[in-house]
Amino acid sequence: MILEFTVRFLNGEYHGEEWPPSPARLFQALVAGARYRYRRGDSWSTSFDEALRWLERQKPPIIVIQSVMTRGKGYTAFRPANNLEEELENENQKQSQKMHPWYGSGIVKYLYESTDPPYETLRMLARSVISMGHGTDIVAVDVTLGTNAPAHDRVAQYPLTPASGGVYNAAGNVRSRQVPVQGWYDRLESNFKVWYKYDEAEPNVATATIPPSYAGHDYAPVRGRSLYWVYALGTQDGRRFSYPPEALVNISAWLRHAAAEAVRGKVSEEVLKGWILGHSSNNSGDERLSYIPLPSVGSEHSDGRIRRIMVASLTGSMPEALEGLPDLLDRAYLYDLNRIARARLLRISNLTEEDQVISAFVSKSHIWDSVTPLILHGHDFRNGKEKPKRTHRLLIEAMHQSGFEEFVDSFEYSKLPFNGWSRNVNEYSLPEHLSKWPRYHIRLRFKGELAGPLLIGIGRHYGLGLFARSPSSS
Protein backbone atom coordinates (compact mmCIF):
# COMPACT_ATOMS: atom_id res chain seq x y z
CA MET A 1 0.00 0.00 0.00
CA ILE A 2 1.07 3.60 -0.62
CA LEU A 3 0.37 6.06 2.18
CA GLU A 4 0.40 9.51 0.59
CA PHE A 5 0.68 12.80 2.51
CA THR A 6 -0.23 15.85 0.40
CA VAL A 7 0.99 19.22 1.72
CA ARG A 8 -0.35 22.46 0.19
CA PHE A 9 1.30 25.76 1.12
CA LEU A 10 -1.72 28.06 1.22
CA ASN A 11 0.21 31.35 1.35
CA GLY A 12 2.42 30.38 -1.58
CA GLU A 13 5.60 30.65 0.48
CA TYR A 14 7.93 28.47 2.51
CA HIS A 15 10.76 29.73 4.72
CA GLY A 16 12.78 26.57 5.28
CA GLU A 17 16.32 26.23 3.95
CA GLU A 18 15.60 23.28 1.67
CA TRP A 19 12.99 22.66 -0.99
CA PRO A 20 11.19 20.33 -0.89
CA PRO A 21 10.86 20.11 2.90
CA SER A 22 12.43 17.03 4.39
CA PRO A 23 10.38 14.11 5.80
CA ALA A 24 11.58 15.21 9.26
CA ARG A 25 9.79 18.54 8.82
CA LEU A 26 6.60 16.71 7.91
CA PHE A 27 6.91 14.58 11.04
CA GLN A 28 7.52 17.63 13.23
CA ALA A 29 4.49 19.34 11.72
CA LEU A 30 2.32 16.31 12.52
CA VAL A 31 3.48 16.30 16.12
CA ALA A 32 3.05 20.06 16.52
CA GLY A 33 -0.39 20.04 14.88
CA ALA A 34 -1.62 17.25 17.12
CA ARG A 35 -0.21 19.09 20.15
CA TYR A 36 -1.95 22.31 19.23
CA ARG A 37 -5.32 20.70 18.57
CA TYR A 38 -5.55 17.99 21.21
CA ARG A 39 -2.88 18.95 23.79
CA ARG A 40 -2.82 16.34 26.55
CA GLY A 41 -6.40 16.58 27.75
CA ASP A 42 -9.20 14.07 27.56
CA SER A 43 -9.32 14.40 23.76
CA TRP A 44 -5.84 12.90 23.36
CA SER A 45 -5.76 9.25 22.34
CA THR A 46 -2.97 6.76 22.80
CA SER A 47 -3.59 5.82 19.17
CA PHE A 48 -1.91 9.13 18.25
CA ASP A 49 1.28 8.06 20.02
CA GLU A 50 1.16 4.64 18.36
CA ALA A 51 0.61 6.13 14.89
CA LEU A 52 3.51 8.57 15.22
CA ARG A 53 5.84 5.86 16.49
CA TRP A 54 4.73 3.69 13.57
CA LEU A 55 5.53 6.48 11.11
CA GLU A 56 9.04 7.10 12.47
CA ARG A 57 9.89 3.42 11.88
CA GLN A 58 9.02 3.50 8.17
CA LYS A 59 11.55 3.65 5.35
CA PRO A 60 12.24 7.14 3.93
CA PRO A 61 9.38 8.19 1.61
CA ILE A 62 9.45 9.20 -2.04
CA ILE A 63 9.03 12.97 -2.28
CA VAL A 64 7.02 14.22 -5.29
CA ILE A 65 7.27 17.93 -6.09
CA GLN A 66 4.04 18.90 -7.84
CA SER A 67 4.58 22.64 -8.39
CA VAL A 68 7.34 25.19 -8.91
CA MET A 69 8.87 27.11 -6.01
CA THR A 70 11.53 29.76 -6.68
CA ARG A 71 13.98 31.20 -4.17
CA GLY A 72 13.13 34.79 -3.22
CA LYS A 73 15.43 37.54 -1.97
CA GLY A 74 16.47 37.44 1.67
CA TYR A 75 15.22 39.99 4.17
CA THR A 76 15.18 40.61 7.91
CA ALA A 77 11.94 40.21 9.87
CA PHE A 78 11.23 41.53 13.35
CA ARG A 79 8.89 39.84 15.80
CA PRO A 80 8.06 39.91 19.51
CA ALA A 81 10.16 37.78 21.82
CA ASN A 82 8.70 34.39 22.75
CA ASN A 83 9.06 35.12 26.45
CA LEU A 84 5.91 37.16 27.22
CA GLU A 85 7.16 38.56 30.54
CA GLU A 86 10.38 39.87 29.00
CA GLU A 87 8.46 41.41 26.12
CA LEU A 88 6.25 43.43 28.50
CA GLU A 89 9.32 44.83 30.24
CA ASN A 90 10.91 45.86 26.93
CA GLU A 91 8.04 46.94 24.70
CA ASN A 92 10.30 48.44 22.04
CA GLN A 93 12.53 45.38 21.72
CA LYS A 94 11.92 43.00 18.85
CA GLN A 95 13.81 39.90 17.86
CA SER A 96 15.31 40.00 14.36
CA GLN A 97 15.37 36.96 12.12
CA LYS A 98 16.91 36.40 8.70
CA MET A 99 14.32 35.17 6.19
CA HIS A 100 15.03 33.60 2.79
CA PRO A 101 11.68 32.35 1.46
CA TRP A 102 10.62 30.18 -1.42
CA TYR A 103 7.65 31.46 -3.44
CA GLY A 104 5.11 29.65 -5.63
CA SER A 105 2.03 27.45 -5.49
CA GLY A 106 3.80 24.81 -3.42
CA ILE A 107 2.40 21.28 -3.35
CA VAL A 108 4.53 18.39 -2.07
CA LYS A 109 3.64 14.72 -1.63
CA TYR A 110 5.35 12.16 0.62
CA LEU A 111 4.75 8.55 -0.40
CA TYR A 112 5.36 5.78 2.14
CA GLU A 113 5.31 2.15 1.02
CA SER A 114 3.86 0.11 3.88
CA THR A 115 1.51 -2.64 4.96
CA ASP A 116 -1.44 -2.08 7.29
CA PRO A 117 -0.78 1.61 8.10
CA PRO A 118 -2.85 3.38 10.85
CA TYR A 119 -4.57 5.35 8.12
CA GLU A 120 -7.53 6.88 9.96
CA THR A 121 -5.42 8.03 12.89
CA LEU A 122 -2.76 9.57 10.66
CA ARG A 123 -5.49 11.29 8.69
CA MET A 124 -6.78 12.89 11.92
CA LEU A 125 -3.26 14.03 12.77
CA ALA A 126 -2.66 15.38 9.25
CA ARG A 127 -5.81 17.47 9.37
CA SER A 128 -4.58 19.04 12.61
CA VAL A 129 -1.49 20.54 10.94
CA ILE A 130 -1.56 24.32 10.59
CA SER A 131 1.97 25.21 9.49
CA MET A 132 5.10 23.50 8.25
CA GLY A 133 8.41 25.30 8.55
CA HIS A 134 7.88 28.74 10.08
CA GLY A 135 4.65 29.66 11.81
CA THR A 136 3.74 31.85 8.82
CA ASP A 137 4.03 28.91 6.37
CA ILE A 138 0.35 27.99 6.51
CA VAL A 139 -0.46 24.56 5.04
CA ALA A 140 -3.29 22.10 4.54
CA VAL A 141 -2.33 18.44 4.84
CA ASP A 142 -4.31 15.37 3.84
CA VAL A 143 -3.61 11.64 3.67
CA THR A 144 -4.80 9.10 1.13
CA LEU A 145 -4.21 5.39 0.81
CA GLY A 146 -3.71 3.67 -2.54
CA THR A 147 -1.70 1.08 -4.41
CA ASN A 148 0.12 3.00 -7.12
CA ALA A 149 3.55 4.57 -6.66
CA PRO A 150 5.03 6.85 -9.34
CA ALA A 151 7.08 4.89 -11.87
CA HIS A 152 10.28 6.93 -11.82
CA ASP A 153 8.49 10.28 -11.71
CA ARG A 154 10.70 12.96 -13.26
CA VAL A 155 9.82 15.54 -10.60
CA ALA A 156 10.30 13.19 -7.64
CA GLN A 157 13.10 12.67 -5.15
CA TYR A 158 13.85 9.01 -4.44
CA PRO A 159 15.64 7.71 -1.33
CA LEU A 160 18.90 6.05 -2.26
CA THR A 161 19.94 2.66 -0.94
CA PRO A 162 23.30 0.89 -1.39
CA ALA A 163 21.64 -1.59 -3.74
CA SER A 164 20.18 1.11 -6.00
CA GLY A 165 23.09 3.55 -5.95
CA GLY A 166 24.17 2.65 -9.47
CA VAL A 167 20.71 3.30 -10.84
CA TYR A 168 20.84 7.01 -10.11
CA ASN A 169 22.97 9.69 -11.65
CA ALA A 170 24.54 10.59 -8.33
CA ALA A 171 26.99 13.27 -9.46
CA GLY A 172 25.54 16.65 -8.56
CA ASN A 173 22.06 15.25 -7.96
CA VAL A 174 22.23 13.75 -4.48
CA ARG A 175 20.77 15.76 -1.61
CA SER A 176 20.74 14.71 2.03
CA ARG A 177 17.27 15.01 3.62
CA GLN A 178 16.55 14.71 7.31
CA VAL A 179 14.33 11.73 8.14
CA PRO A 180 12.99 10.66 11.55
CA VAL A 181 14.45 7.62 13.23
CA GLN A 182 13.03 5.28 15.81
CA GLY A 183 12.82 7.02 19.19
CA TRP A 184 12.61 10.52 17.76
CA TYR A 185 8.97 11.01 18.77
CA ASP A 186 9.79 10.27 22.41
CA ARG A 187 12.71 12.72 22.19
CA LEU A 188 10.40 15.42 20.84
CA GLU A 189 7.95 14.69 23.65
CA SER A 190 10.72 15.15 26.23
CA ASN A 191 11.77 18.42 24.66
CA PHE A 192 8.22 19.65 24.60
CA LYS A 193 7.64 18.92 28.28
CA VAL A 194 10.77 20.86 29.20
CA TRP A 195 10.20 23.76 26.85
CA TYR A 196 6.48 24.31 27.35
CA LYS A 197 5.09 24.38 30.86
CA TYR A 198 1.39 24.88 30.41
CA ASP A 199 0.49 27.08 33.34
CA GLU A 200 -1.84 30.08 33.22
CA ALA A 201 0.43 31.97 35.61
CA GLU A 202 3.57 31.13 33.60
CA PRO A 203 2.36 30.21 30.12
CA ASN A 204 5.54 30.09 28.06
CA VAL A 205 8.92 29.52 29.70
CA ALA A 206 11.77 28.33 27.49
CA THR A 207 14.74 26.43 28.87
CA ALA A 208 17.54 24.39 27.38
CA THR A 209 16.33 21.42 25.36
CA ILE A 210 17.92 18.23 24.12
CA PRO A 211 18.68 18.34 20.38
CA PRO A 212 16.31 16.10 18.42
CA SER A 213 17.72 12.90 16.98
CA TYR A 214 17.20 12.41 13.27
CA ALA A 215 19.22 10.95 10.44
CA GLY A 216 20.32 12.31 7.09
CA HIS A 217 19.32 10.18 4.09
CA ASP A 218 20.50 10.68 0.50
CA TYR A 219 17.85 11.48 -2.11
CA ALA A 220 18.20 11.83 -5.86
CA PRO A 221 15.93 12.02 -8.91
CA VAL A 222 15.87 9.10 -11.34
CA ARG A 223 18.00 10.65 -14.05
CA GLY A 224 20.67 8.07 -14.88
CA ARG A 225 18.03 5.44 -15.63
CA SER A 226 16.63 6.88 -18.85
CA LEU A 227 16.28 4.05 -21.35
CA TYR A 228 17.55 4.79 -24.83
CA TRP A 229 19.05 3.19 -27.90
CA VAL A 230 20.67 4.85 -30.91
CA TYR A 231 20.63 4.12 -34.63
CA ALA A 232 22.82 5.33 -37.45
CA LEU A 233 20.98 6.39 -40.60
CA GLY A 234 21.94 4.82 -43.90
CA THR A 235 20.69 4.81 -47.48
CA GLN A 236 19.39 1.81 -49.39
CA ASP A 237 22.74 1.43 -51.17
CA GLY A 238 24.73 1.40 -47.90
CA ARG A 239 25.93 5.01 -47.74
CA ARG A 240 25.54 7.37 -44.77
CA PHE A 241 22.30 9.35 -44.75
CA SER A 242 22.17 12.93 -43.50
CA TYR A 243 19.26 15.31 -43.05
CA PRO A 244 19.02 19.06 -42.40
CA PRO A 245 18.46 19.86 -38.70
CA GLU A 246 15.91 22.56 -39.50
CA ALA A 247 13.46 19.81 -40.56
CA LEU A 248 14.16 17.37 -37.72
CA VAL A 249 10.46 16.95 -36.86
CA ASN A 250 9.99 15.18 -40.21
CA ILE A 251 12.50 12.45 -39.46
CA SER A 252 11.09 12.14 -35.93
CA ALA A 253 7.65 11.50 -37.44
CA TRP A 254 9.07 8.89 -39.83
CA LEU A 255 10.63 7.02 -36.91
CA ARG A 256 7.43 7.12 -34.88
CA HIS A 257 5.53 5.64 -37.83
CA ALA A 258 8.19 2.92 -38.23
CA ALA A 259 7.89 2.03 -34.52
CA ALA A 260 4.10 1.80 -34.83
CA GLU A 261 4.35 -0.49 -37.85
CA ALA A 262 6.94 -2.68 -36.11
CA VAL A 263 4.69 -3.46 -33.11
CA ARG A 264 1.24 -3.27 -34.68
CA GLY A 265 -0.60 -6.48 -33.86
CA LYS A 266 2.05 -7.46 -31.29
CA VAL A 267 0.97 -5.09 -28.49
CA SER A 268 -2.35 -3.84 -27.14
CA GLU A 269 -4.09 -0.85 -28.67
CA GLU A 270 -3.50 1.06 -25.41
CA VAL A 271 0.26 0.54 -25.60
CA LEU A 272 0.29 1.40 -29.30
CA LYS A 273 -1.63 4.66 -28.85
CA GLY A 274 0.01 5.70 -25.60
CA TRP A 275 3.63 4.59 -25.65
CA ILE A 276 4.29 4.48 -29.40
CA LEU A 277 2.11 7.25 -30.84
CA GLY A 278 2.04 9.48 -27.76
CA HIS A 279 -1.74 9.81 -27.51
CA SER A 280 -1.73 9.18 -23.77
CA SER A 281 -4.16 10.29 -21.07
CA ASN A 282 -1.26 10.43 -18.59
CA ASN A 283 -1.11 13.90 -17.07
CA SER A 284 2.67 14.15 -17.12
CA GLY A 285 2.84 13.28 -20.82
CA ASP A 286 6.10 11.38 -20.32
CA GLU A 287 4.69 7.84 -20.29
CA ARG A 288 5.64 7.45 -23.94
CA LEU A 289 8.62 6.96 -26.21
CA SER A 290 10.55 9.92 -27.57
CA TYR A 291 11.99 9.99 -31.11
CA ILE A 292 15.05 12.21 -31.01
CA PRO A 293 17.12 13.10 -34.10
CA LEU A 294 20.74 13.70 -33.04
CA PRO A 295 22.53 16.53 -34.91
CA SER A 296 26.23 15.95 -35.54
CA VAL A 297 27.95 17.92 -32.77
CA GLY A 298 30.97 17.65 -30.52
CA SER A 299 33.88 18.98 -32.57
CA GLU A 300 34.91 22.13 -34.40
CA HIS A 301 34.30 20.38 -37.73
CA SER A 302 30.73 19.25 -36.90
CA ASP A 303 28.07 20.56 -39.28
CA GLY A 304 24.93 19.89 -37.22
CA ARG A 305 23.29 17.63 -39.81
CA ILE A 306 21.35 14.59 -38.60
CA ARG A 307 23.03 11.21 -39.15
CA ARG A 308 21.86 9.40 -36.00
CA ILE A 309 18.57 9.09 -34.17
CA MET A 310 17.63 8.02 -30.66
CA VAL A 311 14.57 6.26 -29.29
CA ALA A 312 14.18 6.90 -25.55
CA SER A 313 11.94 6.41 -22.56
CA LEU A 314 12.77 9.50 -20.52
CA THR A 315 11.06 8.12 -17.41
CA GLY A 316 13.31 5.06 -17.33
CA SER A 317 10.41 2.60 -17.61
CA MET A 318 8.69 0.82 -20.48
CA PRO A 319 5.97 -1.84 -20.85
CA GLU A 320 7.25 -5.40 -21.11
CA ALA A 321 5.44 -5.72 -24.44
CA LEU A 322 7.93 -3.26 -25.97
CA GLU A 323 11.13 -4.95 -24.82
CA GLY A 324 11.77 -6.33 -28.30
CA LEU A 325 11.26 -2.99 -30.07
CA PRO A 326 14.98 -2.08 -30.34
CA ASP A 327 15.66 -5.23 -32.36
CA LEU A 328 12.51 -4.83 -34.44
CA LEU A 329 13.63 -1.38 -35.54
CA ASP A 330 17.13 -2.52 -36.49
CA ARG A 331 17.44 -2.36 -40.31
CA ALA A 332 13.87 -1.05 -40.64
CA TYR A 333 13.20 1.61 -43.28
CA LEU A 334 11.91 5.12 -42.62
CA TYR A 335 9.19 6.21 -45.06
CA ASP A 336 8.07 9.76 -45.74
CA LEU A 337 4.44 10.84 -46.28
CA ASN A 338 4.60 9.74 -49.91
CA ARG A 339 5.59 6.22 -48.82
CA ILE A 340 9.07 6.65 -50.26
CA ALA A 341 11.87 4.92 -48.32
CA ARG A 342 14.21 7.69 -47.20
CA ALA A 343 16.60 6.02 -44.76
CA ARG A 344 17.40 2.77 -43.01
CA LEU A 345 18.01 2.29 -39.29
CA LEU A 346 21.29 0.59 -38.26
CA ARG A 347 21.43 -0.01 -34.54
CA ILE A 348 24.56 1.14 -32.71
CA SER A 349 24.91 -1.48 -30.01
CA ASN A 350 28.16 -0.28 -28.45
CA LEU A 351 27.43 3.19 -27.04
CA THR A 352 30.91 4.18 -25.94
CA GLU A 353 32.97 7.32 -25.73
CA GLU A 354 34.39 6.40 -29.14
CA ASP A 355 31.33 7.93 -30.81
CA GLN A 356 31.94 11.60 -30.20
CA VAL A 357 28.43 12.64 -31.24
CA ILE A 358 26.59 10.20 -28.97
CA SER A 359 28.95 11.06 -26.13
CA ALA A 360 28.04 14.75 -26.45
CA PHE A 361 24.40 13.91 -25.68
CA VAL A 362 24.70 11.24 -22.98
CA SER A 363 27.92 11.89 -21.04
CA LYS A 364 28.20 14.07 -17.92
CA SER A 365 28.69 17.82 -17.90
CA HIS A 366 27.85 20.78 -15.70
CA ILE A 367 27.20 23.12 -18.68
CA TRP A 368 24.72 22.16 -21.40
CA ASP A 369 23.69 24.02 -24.57
CA SER A 370 20.49 23.44 -26.50
CA VAL A 371 21.14 22.24 -30.03
CA THR A 372 17.47 22.45 -31.03
CA PRO A 373 15.02 25.14 -29.87
CA LEU A 374 13.27 24.77 -26.53
CA ILE A 375 9.53 25.32 -26.96
CA LEU A 376 7.78 27.07 -24.06
CA HIS A 377 4.30 26.08 -22.86
CA GLY A 378 2.87 29.61 -22.70
CA HIS A 379 3.15 33.06 -24.29
CA ASP A 380 5.78 35.43 -22.95
CA PHE A 381 4.44 38.66 -24.40
CA ARG A 382 1.57 41.04 -23.75
CA ASN A 383 0.16 43.71 -26.06
CA GLY A 384 2.72 42.73 -28.65
CA LYS A 385 5.70 43.24 -26.32
CA GLU A 386 7.93 40.56 -24.90
CA LYS A 387 7.96 40.30 -21.11
CA PRO A 388 11.37 39.04 -19.90
CA LYS A 389 10.06 38.25 -16.41
CA ARG A 390 7.39 36.00 -17.90
CA THR A 391 9.96 34.33 -20.18
CA HIS A 392 12.12 33.67 -17.14
CA ARG A 393 9.22 32.14 -15.22
CA LEU A 394 8.14 29.94 -18.14
CA LEU A 395 11.70 28.65 -18.56
CA ILE A 396 11.89 27.73 -14.87
CA GLU A 397 8.54 25.94 -15.13
CA ALA A 398 9.75 24.03 -18.20
CA MET A 399 12.87 22.91 -16.30
CA HIS A 400 10.69 21.84 -13.39
CA GLN A 401 8.39 19.79 -15.62
CA SER A 402 11.40 17.95 -17.00
CA GLY A 403 12.84 17.34 -13.53
CA PHE A 404 15.94 19.57 -13.69
CA GLU A 405 14.94 22.83 -12.01
CA GLU A 406 16.32 22.03 -8.57
CA PHE A 407 19.84 21.47 -9.94
CA VAL A 408 20.11 24.58 -12.14
CA ASP A 409 22.62 27.13 -10.91
CA SER A 410 22.07 29.70 -13.68
CA PHE A 411 20.91 29.92 -17.28
CA GLU A 412 20.97 32.18 -20.32
CA TYR A 413 18.57 32.27 -23.24
CA SER A 414 18.62 33.74 -26.73
CA LYS A 415 17.10 33.39 -30.18
CA LEU A 416 20.61 32.64 -31.43
CA PRO A 417 22.48 29.42 -30.55
CA PHE A 418 25.25 29.21 -27.97
CA ASN A 419 27.32 26.90 -30.20
CA GLY A 420 28.36 26.60 -33.82
CA TRP A 421 26.19 23.54 -34.58
CA SER A 422 22.70 25.00 -34.26
CA ARG A 423 20.56 27.50 -36.14
CA ASN A 424 18.49 30.55 -35.25
CA VAL A 425 15.32 29.32 -33.55
CA ASN A 426 13.15 30.77 -36.34
CA GLU A 427 14.83 28.59 -38.98
CA TYR A 428 13.33 25.36 -37.62
CA SER A 429 10.12 23.86 -39.01
CA LEU A 430 7.65 22.96 -36.26
CA PRO A 431 4.40 20.99 -36.13
CA GLU A 432 1.37 23.24 -36.35
CA HIS A 433 0.40 22.75 -32.70
CA LEU A 434 3.84 23.94 -31.55
CA SER A 435 4.47 26.75 -34.01
CA LYS A 436 2.50 29.36 -32.04
CA TRP A 437 4.59 29.04 -28.87
CA PRO A 438 7.80 30.96 -28.04
CA ARG A 439 11.10 29.19 -28.69
CA TYR A 440 14.60 29.86 -27.39
CA HIS A 441 18.10 28.47 -27.22
CA ILE A 442 19.31 27.91 -23.65
CA ARG A 443 22.63 27.49 -21.90
CA LEU A 444 22.24 25.72 -18.55
CA ARG A 445 24.80 25.68 -15.75
CA PHE A 446 24.10 23.01 -13.16
CA LYS A 447 25.34 22.88 -9.57
CA GLY A 448 27.10 19.63 -10.40
CA GLU A 449 27.57 17.30 -13.34
CA LEU A 450 24.46 15.74 -14.90
CA ALA A 451 24.32 12.95 -17.44
CA GLY A 452 22.14 13.09 -20.56
CA PRO A 453 20.03 12.66 -22.49
CA LEU A 454 18.62 16.04 -21.47
CA LEU A 455 15.45 17.37 -23.11
CA ILE A 456 13.24 20.24 -21.94
CA GLY A 457 10.04 21.84 -23.24
CA ILE A 458 6.78 20.74 -24.80
CA GLY A 459 8.44 19.48 -27.99
CA ARG A 460 10.94 17.20 -26.25
CA HIS A 461 9.39 13.99 -27.61
CA TYR A 462 10.14 15.22 -31.16
CA GLY A 463 13.75 16.08 -30.34
CA LEU A 464 13.10 19.78 -29.72
CA GLY A 465 14.71 21.22 -26.61
CA LEU A 466 17.59 18.73 -26.94
CA PHE A 467 20.83 19.62 -25.13
CA ALA A 468 24.43 18.64 -25.74
CA ARG A 469 27.52 19.01 -23.59
CA SER A 470 28.73 22.60 -23.99
CA PRO A 471 32.17 23.38 -25.42
CA SER A 472 32.43 25.71 -22.40
CA SER A 473 32.65 22.63 -20.18
CA SER A 474 36.22 21.95 -21.26
Describe what this molecule looks like in 3D.
With 474 residues, this protein is of the alpha+beta class. It folds into 3 domains: 2-220, 2-Layer Sandwich (Alpha-Beta Plaits), CATH 3.30.70; 226-360, Alpha-Beta Plaits; 363-474, no CATH class. It contains 10 helices and 24 strands. The strands form 6 sheets. It has a 7-stranded antiparallel beta sheet with strand order 9-1-8-3-10-12-11. Strands 14-15-13-17-16 form a 5-stranded antiparallel beta sheet, with helices on both faces. Strand 20 and strand 21 (385-386) form a beta hairpin. Helix 1 (23-38) runs antiparallel to helix 2 (46-56). Mean pLDDT is 83; it is low at 162-172 and 203-208.
Which helices and strands occur, and which strands form pairs?
Layout: E1 2-9, E2 13-14, H1 23-38, H2 46-56, E3 62-65, E4 70-71, E5 75-79, H3 84-89, E6 95-99, E7 102-103, E8 107-113, H4 119-126, E9 139-146, E10 156-159, E11 175-180, H5 184-195, E12 214-220, E13 227-234, H6 248-263, H7 269-276, E14 290-295, E15 306-313, H8 325-329, E16 333-335, E17 341-348, H9 356-362, E18 364-370, E19 374-375, E20 381-382, E21 385-386, H10 388-401, E22 408-414, E23 439-451, E24 467-469
Antiparallel strand pairs: 1-8, 1-9, 2-7, 3-8, 3-10, 4-7, 5-6, 10-12, 11-12, 13-15, 13-17, 14-15, 16-17, 18-23, 18-24, 19-23, 20-21, 22-23
